[in-house]
Amino acid sequence: MPRKPIHLERSGGKSQRQRLWELIRATAGREFELMEITPSGIANDSASYYLAALTNARILEVCHKSRAGRTRQRWKLVSDPGAEAPRLRKDGSPVMQGGGNESIWSAMQALGNFTPRVLAEMSGVKETTVKSYCIALRKAGYLTVEREDRHGGGRGVAIQAQYRLVRSLVHGPKPPMITRLKAVYDPNIHRIVWQQSEEALNAGERSRELSVSDASAVTISR
Fold it and tell me: Does domain 6-77 have CATH number 3.40.30.10?
């Protein structure tokens, strides 16, 4: 199912995919039609996309195919992987996006305090990605800084920042997510817990526009 930005996709604290999945699970043991598991506010083509993905992943089975003027297509749940909606492409293959955050989040909880380098080694995620994630979680209050970066003159960072996880803000196993609008969303409590100010977003947009203008000017001068 094509994804929307988190702040637009979620209704009542749950994504469209999750709402569909919960209705599908409720049919356990019986067949169902598309209209039975399509909540209000979700287009039929979006629901059809997810049903196709679940069918290709062999989580659903087609019991009766559509026949014009006679019957509607019906499905049956044949494999239940759990309460969390499966994240799948239409061909049934799993979507791995966000898996890195899950590894980082798990490593954070295991370590308690850490540098980005140690966290990257333990999670198997690129150090640059870990640094960006730590900065975002620090802004959202999930991490405190026990030691700031210490730079070694012109040689870059000599000693990395040391972070500590604020365990009282660990609301569940799902990692906080960074949205396209540079906000931090906690799926465990279905809430945006930090969002960049509109002024900062506008400043960033102006900075990008200036960079494009500067690049164009250089090209023209050549």
Answer: no
Q: Which CATH class is domain 99-198?
A: mainly alpha
CB 74 within 8 A of CB 68: no
Residues in the chain: 222
- The answer to whether the CB of 190 falls within 8 A of the CB of 176 is no
Average pLDDT over every residue of 16-40: 87
Gyration radius of the chain over CA positions? 23
Predicted confidence band of residue 169 (pLDDT cuts 50, 70, 90) = very high
Place of tokens 């800084």: 145
SS3 7: helix
pLDDT at 1: 46
Report DSSP letters for 61-129, one per residue: EEEE--BTTTB--EEEE-----SSPP-B-TTSPBP-TTHHHHHHHHHHHHHSEE-HHHHHHHHT--HHH
Q: So what's the pLDDT on residue 18?
A: 86
Residue with tokens 């540098």: 115
